[in-house]
Amino acid sequence: MSNGRILIVEDDFDISNMLRIFFTGQGYSVDVAARGTDALDICRKKLPDLIVLDIMLPDMDGYAVCKALRTTTRTSHIPIIFLTQKDERSDRIAGLELGADDYITKPFDIEELKLRVRTAINVHKRLNMTDPTTGLPSSRLIEEQLRSLMKAETWTYMQIGIEHIDPFNDAYGFVARDEVLRFSALLLNEIIDEFGTLDDFIGHASSYTFVFITLTEQIQELVESLRKRFNDGILAHYNFMDREQGGIMTSDGHLVPIMKLSVGIVSSKTQRFSDIREITETAAELRRLDSES
After folding, report:
1. Per DSSP, what are the bridge partners of residue 212?
2. Architecture of domain 5-126
3. Which of 122, 155, 227, 237 is most buried, most CB within 10 Å of its CB?
4. Which pLDDT tens digits describe the chain residue by residue (293 residues)?
């Protein structure tokens, strides 16, 4: 099992390759970007648990990358460690003021960097910031986003559940179940990238439930695409027999259908809400009705 996903943003190939090999050997999944724009693109598609970010990049400096990440809702929570040759106090302060979590200068001690990476990821998880399986923001960050809804004028909140996943877990095991959760998280990121905005938010609320807060006007297209892509992609997680019979046959002869999504949608355009609890409870009830349809 991976210790987490790290994004190395470094244009020096020797350094980035060394870090990739080292952290892969430490049990991390590692992505590498040589340019700031590439790093931002990678973060939109699959959120890393931590970013090691060089300041001197060929297209935009690390400060600009950090600012872009911190001012984008989807990426604002990701821990960032600056990695640079600069050792001036003013440079360190500039990075920390932009929201970086740590700062280490070249030449660096690889063991020290390893400890700083591990500490930053563990602290983030202890603070209940991200779900360990999907890497998506979890309860604390979701609560912060929900509080901000009460101040916003227009928004749509979705509660998205995976139906029939418990019997799947019983039949296929937790490793296969976690793959379904990661597939779902990746799909949500793809959908938000296609239909949403940079200020949209995806969270992993509980075991099999995700939340999606969006400012887009394309709600119907978004939901239809999400359902279709999930229905098409989820079949790959079943064996041939279960796909052919349309689900899992239990020991008592009951057929549990293939997993599907249930979606509850509420919007500030159609209803006024007095508090956060009313938003979540209304969405949960609409999701329950959707699961029964």
Report:
1. 158, 202
2. 3-Layer(aba) Sandwich (3.40)
3. 155
4. 578 899 999 999 999 999 999 999 999 999 999 999 999 999 988 889 999 999 889 999 899 999 999 888 888 889 999 987 766 666 667 777 777 888 888 888 999 999 999 999 888 877 767 888 898 998 888 988 888 887 888 899 999 999 999 999 999 999 999 999 999 999 999 999 899 888 899 999 988 999 999 999 999 999 999 999 999 999 999 999 999 999 999 888 899 999 999 999 999 988 888 888 899 999 999 999 999 88
Query: Which of 118, 191, 105, 200 lies closest to 152, judged by CA?
Result: 200
Within 10 angstroms of residue 105's Cβ, the number of other Cβ atoms is 14
What is the phi/psi pair of residue 238, to 5°?
-105, 160
Name residues whose C-beta falls within 8 Å of residue 168's C-beta, 6 or more positions apart in sequence.
176, 177, 180, 237, 248, 256, 259
Tokens of residue 18, six digits: 């060394």
Q: Where are the domains of the chain?
A: 5-126, 139-292
Which residue in 192, 193, 132, 126 sits closest to 160, CA to CA?
A: 192
- Strand ordering across the sheet containing 29-33: 29-33, 5-9, 50-54, 80-84, 102-105
Task: For residue 32, give the 3-state DSSP assignment.
Answer: strand
Prediction pTM value: 0.74
Secondary structure of residue 52 in the 3-state scheme: strand
CA 242/CA 232 separation, integer angstroms: 14
Burial of 264 from C-beta contacts in 10 A (0-12 / 13-18 / 19+): buried
Residue 247 one-letter amino acid: G
Selected from 3.40.630.30, 3.30.70.270, 1.50.10.20, 3.20.20.70, the CATH number assigned to the domain covering 139-292 reads 3.30.70.270
